[in-house]
Amino acid sequence: MIKDFAILILTHGRPFNVITIKSLKKHGYTGPIVIVIDDEDKTKNDYLKNFDNVEIFNKNEIAKTFDEADNFEDKRTIIYARNASFEIAKKLGYKYFMQMDDDYTQFEYRIYSNENQKPKYIFNLDAVILTLLNFYKSTNIATVSMAQGGDFIGGKHNKMATNPTLFRKCMNSFICSTDRPFSFVGRINEDVNTYVKKQSIGLTMLTVPFVSLKQKTTQKSKGGMSDVYEASGTYVKSFYTVLFAPSCTKIKLMGDKHMRLHHAISWNSAVPKIISEDNKVTVN
């Protein structure tokens, strides 16, 4: 078991379908798991019946602590739980914690060495998380994440496979510390808003491409008017990141058969850089 650490599963309205718990145990995680829900969840009594370790936070109070980037009333997004997690972990006595969604189905190794390489099933998730945590502890970065299955579309020829290094993109699962708090921003597209905005002012947020998680598919093409709504929704979602970082974010078409509007980050313009001493010029 990993000391001073817990996984916080951020969930809402799914008291009978928290898939991540089964997946964690199936892949060899043996540490503490905390279920995090908000006080507006109509199914909270079922969560309390079904799970031993449930933490409930006040959504309206958390909303006062960060920039939602709009004046809408709809608060059905994960950002409130993300920001509440730091105080919840601190209250429970955990210095380190990892945020996870409630719909993870699998954890995999992602190391490509030949054309036919396939992801490898992780059986020792405790060891993998401990390795990520030790890396995190050895640095001063704000957070580190596992990659996602979708990051590897294209297999061996995918960017993460051909250039296996740390990536500034940081989404979905987050290893954090109560000693290194930061706020997620923007009611929608909160992970992208945060990793672009926070890194533009000097924080570092990284994804490790050698391990990944899979989760239930979202934004699937359903046909008919649903396609229109889906494209429009993605457009609105992506523009939250434009609001936070207009100097390095644009909206463009993404996809294959089902094209949709999506954000695109110009990392050359997004984050501070350190100029090599070789380029130093002395001016008299």
Would you mind describing this structure in some detail?
The protein is α/β, with parallel strands linked by helices. It folds into 2 domains: 5-218, Spore Coat Polysaccharide Biosynthesis Protein SpsA, Chain A; 219-273, no CATH class. It has helices spanning 19-26, 44-50, 59-63, 79-92, 125-137, 159-162, 190-200, 225-244, 267-270, and strands spanning 5-10, 33-38, 54-57, 96-100, 104-109, 120-121, 143-148, 174-177, 205-215, 249-254, 260-265. The strands form 3 sheets. Strands 3-2-1-4-8 form a 5-stranded mixed β-sheet, with helices on both faces. Strands 6-5-9-7 form a 4-stranded mixed β-sheet. It has a two-stranded antiparallel sheet with strand order 10-11. Strand 10 (249-254) and strand 11 form a beta hairpin. Helix 7 (190-200) packs parallel to helix 8. The longest helix is centred in the last third of the chain and has 20 residues, at 225-244. It is globular, with a radius of gyration of 20 Å. The chain starts with a strand and ends in a 14-residue tail after the last helix. Residues 219-229 have low confidence and may be disordered.
